[in-house]
Structures are given as structure tokens and as C-alpha cells.
Write a structure and sequence with these properties.
alpha+beta; nine-stranded mixed sheet; homodimer; 28 strands; 732 residues
Amino acid sequence: MRSLLALLSSSVSSGHHLFSRLRTCRSSTLAHHVLFSRRGVAMNASEEILRIALAEKQSAVEAQGNAVREMKSAGAAKPDIDAAIEALNGLKLEKASIERQLQAAVSGSESSLTREAFRQAVANTLERRLFYIPSFKIYRGVAGLYDYGPPGCAVKSNVLAFWRQHFVLEENMLEVDCPCVTPEIVLKASGHVDKFTDLMVKDEKTGSCYRADHLLKDFCNEKLQKDLGISPEKAAELKHVLAVLDDLSTEELGAKIKEYGITAPDTKNPLSDPYPFNLMFQTSIGPSGLSPGYMRPETAQGIFVNFKDLYYYNGNKLPFAAAQIGQAFRNEISPRQGLLRVREFTLAEIEHFVDPENKAHLKFSEVANLEFLMFPREEQMSGHSAKRIPLGEAVSRGIVNNETLGYFIGRVYLFLTCLGIDKNRLRFRQHLANEMAHYAADCWDAEIECSYGWIECVGIADRSAYDLRAHSEKSGVPLVAQEKFPEPREVEKLVIDPVKKELGLAFKGNQRMVVEALEAMNEKEALGMKDTLESKGEIEFYVCTLKKNVTIKKDMVTISKEIKKEHHRVFTPSVIEPSFGIGRIIFCLFEHSFYMRPSKAGDEELNVFRFLPLVAPIKCSVFPLVKEQQYEEVAKVISQSLTTVGISHKMDITGTSIGKKYARTDELGVPFAITVDSTSSVTIRERDSKDQVRVDVEKVASIVKEVTDGRRMWADVWSTFPHHIPLDLGNE
Amino acid sequence: MRSLLALLSSSVSSGHHLFSRLRTCRSSTLAHHVLFSRRGVAMNASEEILRIALAEKQSAVEAQGNAVREMKSAGAAKPDIDAAIEALNGLKLEKASIERQLQAAVSGSESSLTREAFRQAVANTLERRLFYIPSFKIYRGVAGLYDYGPPGCAVKSNVLAFWRQHFVLEENMLEVDCPCVTPEIVLKASGHVDKFTDLMVKDEKTGSCYRADHLLKDFCNEKLQKDLGISPEKAAELKHVLAVLDDLSTEELGAKIKEYGITAPDTKNPLSDPYPFNLMFQTSIGPSGLSPGYMRPETAQGIFVNFKDLYYYNGNKLPFAAAQIGQAFRNEISPRQGLLRVREFTLAEIEHFVDPENKAHLKFSEVANLEFLMFPREEQMSGHSAKRIPLGEAVSRGIVNNETLGYFIGRVYLFLTCLGIDKNRLRFRQHLANEMAHYAADCWDAEIECSYGWIECVGIADRSAYDLRAHSEKSGVPLVAQEKFPEPREVEKLVIDPVKKELGLAFKGNQRMVVEALEAMNEKEALGMKDTLESKGEIEFYVCTLKKNVTIKKDMVTISKEIKKEHHRVFTPSVIEPSFGIGRIIFCLFEHSFYMRPSKAGDEELNVFRFLPLVAPIKCSVFPLVKEQQYEEVAKVISQSLTTVGISHKMDITGTSIGKKYARTDELGVPFAITVDSTSSVTIRERDSKDQVRVDVEKVASIVKEVTDGRRMWADVWSTFPHHIPLDLGNE
């Protein structure tokens, strides 16, 4: 069996499509889940053994079948034939058993059916309760576009508010807000115009478009899962294709599609050769048609082009971070994976600018003791799994490149777990060498496990000086920082001093070209010339702008090394970029928060979102126990006081049973319910425990405020106030 | 003199371009300031008198000049000639005086120069302190696109947070979040694809594009302001053109441009005829090129298409409101007015759905006593100015169409003034009949006065059932509400029952057309036919699909009125739409908050933004009085406790003088400054009064929290704590 390592290293060599994929990853945090698919497809030992056993058993069945037929035609004795048939049936049973084992091995330990059923249960609840709505639904929608309905929108706005608190406020970041419409030159400089592409094939008859890699991937997966009879060699080949899928060139991808005879999935028509399709939505700025523009594929560029002003705003001091929350756009070829791969999404991005010679972080000690699942490059290459490593150790051992990168990994961990992401289904995976752009120093993805597998939700990359340099070059505006030395430093510098008078006499009209060529020499060339001039008095020198050699004499140039005093250094800062796919985080949060529990009567399963108060779309509901005017009056007073303290809530004064009302709001993830069953005191119920306490009407709003703000724990409320045992909750 | 009323009524008749202009207004709240320009250009009495006087004086000067020349050529006596010259000079002086008066009258009472200087002072401060940055500045920018830099972004996020609190939370609105990318069919239904246009002309040689109405407007204004010698008739004509500018047809606008010989402003080249240019940014969804899409020009459509789901979410009950905050896009032909007319902007829109038969509002009494500047249609038409009217009175007298519209006007007033908009420079102006779409019941704009004049910042329109009907028709999905009657109601209904057998015999193949025509009769026609059939036995009946009369006999149709019991009614809700141009509100807020005051030394003018804590980008600054380590330590402790209570702040530990530090943060509108001048107590300074109190280090964060949250007034802090008199503030 070809080892995983071999598969991976073979993919490294064909990584020339990398930049486009990386921009793809980094810009939208819509990763290709390289590792997940690799780990998913890498053949494990038992699977290979089973495939070989199956092939052997298949041969044995065929041989025995032939033997039976031969015996029959040769007119063998019946007992002999019966014995041979029995042996054949035994072989067939053994084969069937191996097939079952192989099927189980291929599907993985957790049945993909269970995963899909769970996903469907969550999705149904989310759509029914309007967390999401397929956009423009009455016009049959548009693939890859979703609305956040009222509760989804509230969750999103809570997540963004917490992001601002956790990152922008805590770290004193400079938040900016730039337009989505972006002129072409900016995205030329960033590389998006040329490289932000996916490979596409067209149905040659209908013109329908497909992502080339998706078709090949689907073909291989289906073959592996449904066609158990393929040879172990064929299976290994298909798995290899899956492993190197992201690294295949346009031609290689086209050749594989041809080789496997893959056709358009909807029509079975032949497909075109693959060709790159730019994923940006294009438009035109102004009426002339002469200014092409694009809807930004990421928010980061808006920060980079403002570096100079932001650096000035920060008192010309490094490090500092700028941040931006905003919409980004990707014109996906054929969006799949529902809410995870969409054509418009909210990004929250941080660009932390730092001196490349000093990537220490003042506050690193605050996160150094955190310990969580990390999945370093080496563990991935050697086939191990993610493991818990203290962050301080990861940095000190050099697993994480530097303190600043480590600091942000820690802050991202805290951000996600504070939102309610399950820390056992969260890992930080390091990019493999072939996943990273050549300029990147290190890159880690926060991956969250959901029903689609491990999904990249945050990318944290040390992008070195790449982006600022690209915009400096394109715009001609230097995007640099200065370090003033406390004391001037002595630096040895090469000085090339062409003697223009002599050069003019010798080369007349060509003087300028010769001077420029002399000045352009690097240190090695210049010192070589100096030696030769000193020993031989002259030297032949190739001037590329003249396309010929000229003779340089000793008196035509002086070359020396001088000690110079420097008072400062000028450099392009490195940037460390945590980039958050807000929609993906929210989707995973929904899955991690969802559970079902039986109703009190036991006749149905009720859905619950166990949202923390921080993210819950509505913090509290207010119900009169029964439809009575005095209770309704009290409910209205409580509602008013909740509004005053800024607690979003929902009042329900319909005649529905209290149990049904609880079930309805549990399904929205409302953490607390106030039930009015008297005019002086009311009950507060906590969603997950269903525990209830009794409190005074006057106090209820401030207590709910305290527990939703996180200033007081429910356990404390529970131990402070009298417990309330409900008589009958109807449907609950 | 043609009266203002005459000017206005003449413009009413040519209002067939209305819809497009209104969509323009409503979608972006970037109004055409119809009234402002009208009021600005309507000739007032004194101006017309001056123009007539100037023309008379000019004639007199010419006549006297001729007289002098004649006397000279006739050889009159010198004393006579001298006297005549003296009279001529007197007339010239009088003419010059009238010219000066006229110039003053044309420029208005407040000099436009002062306005522009003020605008420039504010803009300089805003750009220097990075409230705004021209987008993609290092690439020389793109007209009509601006970034919010750090303090601008913070102000915007505060304004939006307050908007959510004031509207969404207080009113329990259903907030949604829909994509910007919108398929064509949605904007076909809304009318944007066909009508969301401005008229454009092209420089015939260079291809540069201009807005046709802008060129004509500039021409007229310049003529009126700089060419004082034009006849009163000509002046009246130009003013009339300005008044009806928005109502001119494509052809009329083209004719005027030709008549006045207007050329391209940059090159003086001839111009093309005007033609409509759609203001939406167009793009293509997916790779096929077959699905055109646009960047939404407003957020409202996302709400309308979701009406059915939202109505269900609200328990199938009216009224309810949905809200959305998001980016909107307008591909302006040639953006002017800097930050007011931009190509991408943030809108916050509310769609309040209500039963058209009951537009009362439960909470109207809460705003009925508000009294502020209102500018009803009638006052505008009769040339009066805006006046203070109690809102309750405005609704009860029918000036404002209904309570719900009135309620939102009141809530918008509270929103804007709570932000810090000067209530004396805020008015609510009713749309004139010709400004409103035919379907609108009433429409009011919140206009804020800034250096550009009165600017529409919020539009509050009762749009009746227009939008929901348009999407119902286009999508085929009924967007309706139901009212269940408590008791069934008896309704008299017309029943037309064609007798198909007889009609078939008489009309054969044409039977279906006749049946359809009979069924399509309205009540009056049907009852007329019934009478005639009863009296004469037959009737001639025109069938439009057959384009001829047929004879209907008594046995061919029965017509009757029946009493039917109805248990509910189905109707399309009306929508009341407050639509907020967030960028415009913020711009006006900046101008209303800006002032200058002399430095303590009196040698320079210092800029201050008097932001309320609610909107201030940074709530507090922390300075050590002098650069000393123990003070810096205290400053850091205070900074940490401010972060803990969620107060955004800025620490400045540079060696700059304390006066300079105050000046720097005053210019950012930071309301409070904490100065560390001991290790046990510190001072808090209030920005506008410059008053300082002394408080304990432990208490300072919670005091600042109280005053910035609005739970405590500065006056109370000032009277509670010992006052601190600074010794010397250096530059302050």
C-alpha cells in the first residue's frame, strides 16, 4: 500500500495552482478542507486488508463456481456435486461478510446517514423557525444566497457585537468600514483578478456549468463507496486522485475526467475541457463602461490600501491591528453544502501589523496556559491525530511560528468557546507546506466539526510582507514602517561612484547606460570589479541596455565599502491575519447547540437550542399562565421593564398551553421564561434544566438582566430564590 | 410677477417622470431636494423688484448716456453738459447700489461662502482624523466611494446600535438580513430595472458622461448669480426651469440644453441628446452569463419578498414591522456633494405592515405631545415656512394622513435628536402631490439643515399596498393577510351566471369569449343589462375580444344579487416605510457637533466635536499628567477596569503636554478625559465645559461608565465630587 506520507509528498510537487487556492481559502475562509478529505480518503490498514480479502474471496467463488459447473457437465456423483455447492455457498457467505465489513470501513465509524439525518433535523428547525430563509424564495430562490430571518439575524448581530467586544475593544484595534465595490487595479495588485479562479467544465449541449474538481471527486467517492468489487489497485488509484485533487493542473484534471469517462451529471452529455472561471462578481463603476470593478472577495484589501493612514493614526508605532466586518462575495460555479458555501457572506477580518524582526506579543502570557486540540503539520504527515498541547509549549517548541500568531490562536479559541462552540469539536490545524503560499510564514485554521465534517471557520495566517509589498509596487506609494534607533547604528555599505567625466569621454552618448549598469551591480560583482581594476587596470563589462561589452578602466569608477551611521531602519511590516467566516461559525454553533428531548407526555420529540444568553436571539419570554386580564397587565409591566434594561424578549398572550409556549421558545433557544401566575410574584424558568424559581415582580427584570449579562450564574439564582414546582405543564 | 404657486402648479402637470424619481428618493433617501431647490430658486418679492429696478436704471443710464452724447455733438453749453454728466454718474451709482443689493438677495442671507468655509473646516478635520478616507486613496480613489476610518466607523456602529435599540428592540420588530446580490426578476417586479434611471448626456468627442439635469441646473444658477444684467423675464424663465427641472421629460431637457447652448463643462465639446442610464450596478450570477443580477439599490425588497414567512412568524397577525440594516448601491453618473451622494451606502429600513382599514397605532399617545418643525404641503404651496405643530394635532387635523405614519414621524424625531441632531435644524417636510407616487397615501421627509442646505435624511412614506401587490403579481405567490371576523358578516354580492348551453347554441366557437366578457362586467354594467333584459328581452353587448357587438337574450344569462356569509376577509396590507440614510445622518451629525474655540494661549483655534457619549467614537481618554512610571502604572490599571466595564478608551503615555493631549481628543469628540496626577486619586475632565473633578482611582471607571451610559448626568458628578482647578494646561 502506498503510504499516506507518499500520497502527500507526491502532491507537493504538483502544487503550482496553490496561490489561487490559498487566496480562495484565505479570502472567504471557505476552505477546501484539504486535510479532511485527505484523512477521509487515506486508506487505513483494515480497509486495504478487506479489499484484498474480498478480491481473493471473489476469485475463490469464481473458481469454485467453475468447479461445480465442470463437475455437473462431467456427470460427477450427486454427493460430490452437493458438497462442492455447499463449499461454494460457504465462500459466498464469507464474501458477503467481507463486503459488509468493507462497507462499514468505507462509511467510517459514524454512519454518514446519522450525520445527514442530524443535519436535516437541525436544518428543518432552522428553516421552520426562520433562522434562515432561502433568498428570494417566492421567485424560487437563487443557489448560494440565504437570508437571516429574525432569530438568525439576532444571533448574527450578537456574534458580531461579541466579536467587536472581544477583539476590537479589548485589543484597541482600529476598525474601518470600506465599500464592497472595488476598482480593478486593487484586485489586480492583490492577485485576485488573475488567480482567484476555480476550474469549470461545461455540458457541451446544454451549457450547464460544473466545478471540474467536484465532478472528479464525486466520481471517485461513488466508485469507492458503491463499487466494492474494484481491485485494491484501482481503489488505491482513486484514493490517490482524491488526495491530490487540489493540486491537479488544468490539463491533469481534464485528462482524468476523459480517462474516467465522466459526463454531465444531469444529462450524461459530454463535457468541455476544464478552464478557469474567476469567482468575483464583476461590474462596472460609473456609466462609461471603462472602469471595471468587482464586488470584493474579502475585506482585507480595504485595510491594506489604508495602511499608511492607519499607521499614522496609531502614532507611527508598531504593532497595531486594524479590523473590518463586512460583506464579501464569491460567484461560486455551482454552490453545494447549503449554508457553508454561499455566494455572499459576512467576514470579520483582522490585520495585525508587526515588525518582522520582533513578533513577540506583550499579552501572550495571558493565553500561554490554554490547552486545546492542535493538529500540527508533523502529526498530519505521520498519520497521527490532533492532540491537546498547551499553547505556550506550542510556541516555545516552534510548532507555532511566533508569539503573535500564538496569541491570536488563543484569542480565537476563547472567542469560539465563549460563543458556545463545543471545545471537543474544535481543533487548530496547521497548513501543510504545500497548502501555504510561498510567502506565508505559518498558517493555522480553526476547524469546527459539524455534520459536513471538519470545517475551516477561522484562518489565522502569518502572511509576512506580501500584501503591503504588492500594493506598494502597484500604487507606487511606499507602505512601510520606520524604526528609530535609540542610538545611531554603524552599518557597512557598498559605495559605487562612477566618474562621469571619464565615462563621458569614453562612451559619449552611451554614458548614461554605462553609469546605470555600474550602479546596478550587486556587492559581489562590484567587489570583483574592484579587485580586477586594482590588479589589471581594466575590465570587460557587459551593459545589458547596450547589449554589448565595454571596457571599464580604473579611473572610470571608484568602488569602496564605507561605514555609515544609520538613525533608523525602514521596512515593510509583516501582517498576521485572523479571518473569520461569520456564517460558518454561526452554522456550526447552531449544530453544536441543537438537541432533542421527549415531551413530558413522551409522545413527541421537542427541539431545543441550548444557546448561551450571549448569543440567544431572544433572551427571555413572558407568558401569563392563563389568559386573564390581571396577568396580562403584569406581563406588560414586566415587558416594559425588560425593554428599559435592554433585554430583548417575546410576549405570548395567546391562549396556548404553557407547555406549548415553553416548547416554542425552547426551539428558538430562548434561555429564560417568565411566567405570570400571580400579580405579586412570577416564576423564571431556565431552558435546559427546566428549573423554576419564584421572584418578585419588581425584581424579575434585573435578575434576568444579571443572568443574561453573565454577571450572575443561574446556579446562584437557583440557590437564592424559592423553587417553584409546576403542577402540570401540558405538552412539555 | 409669476407667483410661486403658479410656478409650482405648472410643474405639477408635467410629472410623468415621477415614478423613477420617487424610487430614486425612496430607495436611497438621496433625495433630489425638490423643495429645497424650489424654495431656493423661487424668486422672492424683493429680488424681483430689484431686477425690475435694475433694468429700469440700466435704461435710464443708457438714455442719459445718449443724451450726453447728443448734447456734446450738438455743441451744448458746458455747464449743461456737466450737469447731464453729473446726472449720468448719479444714475450709475444708483445702478451699482441696486446691483449690490441684488447680488446679496441672490446669494441669500447667509453667505454661501461662509457655509462653504464651515463645510471645509469640518471636512478637513474629519479627513485628518480619519473619520472618513476617500476609498482606495493610494490608487487615486474612486468618485463616490468613502471608507469610514476608525473614529467614523465607531460612530457609525454606535448609531446603528442605537437604531436597533430605539426601533427594533423597543418595537419588537422582526429584523432580517438579506443579500446585496439580487436577481433581475425581483427588481423587475419592483420597477427598478425599468425606471431607476437618471438622464445622462455624453461629451460627443471624449465620451465623458454627465447628468443632464445637473448641467442645466448649473447653467441656470450660474447665469442667475453671475449675469446680473439679464432681464427680469429671462431670470423668471431660468427660475422656472430650475423649479420644474425634476419634471422635465427627456425631450424637454434635451431641448433646453440645445436652446441654451450648453456644452461639456470640461472640454466645451458638444453634448449628445439625453438618454436614461440605469443606476444599478449590474452583474451576473453564476458562471453561465444567463442570470443577470444587480447590487440592490435599497434593502426594502428583501423584506417584501419575505412577507409571507414574516407574517406567519408573527402568528398571522397585523400590524407588525420588519427591519433591515445593510449596504445599498447606486451607480451614480458623476457623484458630487462629497459624502452626501455616494455610490455605496448603509440604509436602515423599516416596513411596517398594517391593515389599510385601520391605521391607528396603539402607542401613538406616547408621541402625540411632541412638538417640532413641520412643513406641510399647504405651507409650502402658499410660500410660508415650516412651523412647530404638536404631532397629535397634525394627525387629528388630517395634516398627517394617519396615526401610524404620525407615530413613526415622532419616533424618528426622537431618534435624531437623541443622537445629537440640532432640533432647530431638523424639520419634517411633506411631499407635494407631484413628488409622490400615485399609489402613496402620504410621505414625509426628515430634513436636516447642513452646509449643503436642507438634506433629506429619512423618508417616512405610506406606500399603500403597492410593493406587496407588485411581487404577488410577478411571483404568483399571494402576499396577503387575513382578518377573521368574530362573527360571520353578511355581504351582498353580485352573481353573474352565463347559461352556457344557450350561449353555445348561439355563438358556437365564440362562446368562451362571450362568457368571459359577461363575467367581467362590473356591477353597474351587469345591473343595467339585467334591467334591459327584463324590460326588452335582449340587449346588444360589445365583446372586446371579438371586437363586435353580439345580441344577448334573456335566457342566456342570469344576473342577481345574493347575500353571502363571510367569515373572514383577505387583503393586501399597506406598508408604512421609514427609510434611513445612515451616512447622511452621520454627516449632518458631524456638522451639528463641530465647533471651534480659541486655545488657552489664544494663538490658535481648536476643533471640537461635541458628540454625546451615545455616539462618541471613544468614550474616554486616559493620560498620565507627566511621563512617570508610577502614573503609567495607575493609567494601565484604569484602562483595564474601563475595558472590563466595556468603555472604549484611548491611552496616551507619550510625553506630549497635557493641553495638547486634551486638544487632540477634543478633536475626536472624546467626552471625558481621566488624568493621572497621583496614585490615589485622578481627575475627570468634561470636554465642552473643561470642568474637572477629583475622584478615587477605584471609582473612576464606574463613574465614567455611569455618565457615558446616560444613567448619571455630568452636572450630578460635578456637584458630588471636589472640583479640580488645573494649574497650567499648556496649549489648551
